[in-house]
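Provenance and format

Records in this collection were gathered into a single text stream. Each protein contributes a sequence line and a token line. The two records reproduced below are adjacent in the stream.
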Amino acid sequence: MKTATGSESVPPKAVKPVSKCLITSASLLVLAACSGDLAPIDLSITCHIGSYRTAGGGVIDLAPLSTPALRWRSGDGRTGRLEPDGEGGWTHQLGWTDQPHPARFALGSCDDGRIEVDGMEGLDGEASRIDFPITETEFESGGETLVGRLILPEGEGPFPLVVLVHGSEQSSARQYYYMQRLLPARGLATFVYDKRGTGASSGDYTQDFHLLADDAVNALAEARRLGGDQLGEAGYLGTSQGGWVAPLAASQGGADFVIAAYGMAEGALAEDREEVLLSLIEAGYGDDDAILAGGRALAAAAGRLMASDFSDSWHELASLKRQYRDEDWYDAIEGEFTHEFLVRPIWQVWMAMPFFDKGTSWDYEPRPVLAALDIPALWILSEDDREAPPATTRVILSELQAEGAPIDVAVFPNSGHGMIQFDLAPDGSRLETRYAEGYFDLLVDWAQTREPADGDGDADLQ
């Protein structure tokens, strides 16, 4: 799944939120960038990282990026980028665009623990760093040592606990994932941990959903051990690829609820297929059943090749490429990996095979797991998600609701992967400006009460 807002170590682009170091590391052009951890955070800005509370009770979080820059986020979803201007100040950019933002931040010295904000309605003035109770820990899982952190809200518990299961990032969640602070600032305890093979955790990076689910189960147990009677009901928040992992972890028991955001209720191969079909629809071929059938056939052959560890479907894919490569719509096809298979010779794909193998659970089917869950679940979907197209997921969730599954569904309009809202530029590209209004509110309200609240923004509740 895409990683637009998991650790968000790399900011999204205007049209496609991130490079394709995703489920499969499929793009041959970016394999080197996908193969290791990010560079350490620039020390000149680390002292500003944290959540700050304004005099009026609002929250602003400052999180690091992999470059010498910060991303600020407010509790209502507004966001922007701060970058040193070389003269002791900061440049201010709107969302993930290169447009200037009217807000101005004065971060002061590292010892201040305060920031000044101007130009942010409802958040102007001085804000003080929130001093969260934090416990660092290590725990064992499947023969590896994982490094985690429990963060409690201010005040007296017990607090609802959310274990963060982020997407396919290979960066340190403890270092980059802003939710570890934004949720405690709103009254939820959080447990964040570096997945195996990332950050300070041992092991090899993997996209084996079953193995990752086992790690999440052990993370929940460790959080409960650390938090004791300071913790109330506990569950998972799985974003993007975590939308597969978190429900699977919840199915093993021990959780009181599960939240999946911008994930899919289909298997991993379906993500590529849905991206292929959506790319054809957006290119103007949505009314041509024959073209859509051709896209499905190409995606199916590419999927069989991926799922078989490159041992099956070579000849079928080569035959389909010859059949369709001169069609006008052929070059419009995108996808999680199908696009790469279509534009490159088969021998190049074969040579890159070692980079593709991340242990992805291609055979995992989430629907039976979701149908068997007897704990409350919330699915939060982006209506215009190009990275995890939600159409079929919405149908599956609706069917499960009709069968009596305790699932709530919220769909945010005019938002893409990562719950990021956008404006359309004159050329049709997306200018990503903020998080969907009400997204953070919905997470907090539902985790605390299992009920959406009236003030949860633009969400279409189903």
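Adjacent record:
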Amino acid sequence: MTRLRSSGRAAHKAVTALITVAVVAGIASVASRSSRADGMPPRGPAPVKAITLSPRDVPVNLEYAARVRGSREVEIRPRVSGILEKRNYREGAEVKAGQSLFTIDPVPYRTAVARAEADLAAASARLAQARREAERLRPLIQAKAASRQDLDNAESGQQVARAEVQAAEARLREARLNLEYTRVESPLAGIAGRAIPSEGALLAGPESLLTRVIQVDPVHVLFGLPDSDQLRLQRGAASGEIRLPEGGRYAVELMLSDGGIYTARGQLDYTSVRVDEATGTSEARAVVANPDGLLRPGQFVRVRLSGAMRPQALQVPQRAVLEGPQGRFVYIIEDGKAAIRPVELAETLGEDVVVTHGLASGDQVIVDGVLKIGPGAPVTATPPQGN
């Protein structure tokens, strides 16, 4: 009986010891997990991925919302009044320069031409008669058979007749010009819009708007250039951090509403010196070829200006940049340990960002693994995949 009690106490002590070991192990495991959750670096060098910086020329990214406009847009108005007889084009179709768009009833103007021609013939006949009269009187004056006053009157009549001929010629030219104006032509090649009046309408001359013609090859792309960007470029150029294109001739790339890139590139050809008080932008315009008519007036696009460069700039992946109480920073490797380096950034280029201050050529910047290290933590670095 005594041996049984002794054996039971021994078993109880063994079980208690096992439970104690398990509890201690559990507490250690929890403590270990807690320390990792608190961001404390693990024992030994932490594996990270890092890149070594080397300077290179990088483009300055300038991108804005824009709208397409026709390079030329004209209102088609008649120069003479009359009845609109016929429309000579298909609405919304392409027209050529000099193509007839409308015909105004020409009959009244043909009649005016005929009347002007008759008036010119009569004036020419009177001039010929006055000239003959003066020619007859000159020999009679020499023979003392006619007075000098008669010759003066004949020569004056000849001058009056000549002036009447000139007036008749002017009226004939005007009549013929009005007759030509009954054929309303397009002054440029482009797309003709909807005809506003219908056939049979009475046109009151230039007051009547017939349609509009828009030249769509090339097109103008209008957008606002922020004053802040202009100042940034000017200051960067003055300090040597930015190299601007010669003559400010930026190349222009268009991004369409579906995310595609328009194949033809354009060029910036105008920037207003005036800054709009409401928007803080200056109007800018680019000219882009549009031979296929893919770009249409009123269409929204995005423009990307290229030509400005940052010579010998440094760039890092965006994921390497962290935000702290003192601003943005990256981790670099110094003597095998992680060190914080505050940075100043410029524009983004895809997945990278340009660093203007804080880093130097040859610095090793930690790209991946930054969340499991702290300042002074020992690290072992390998290049990221693809580098």
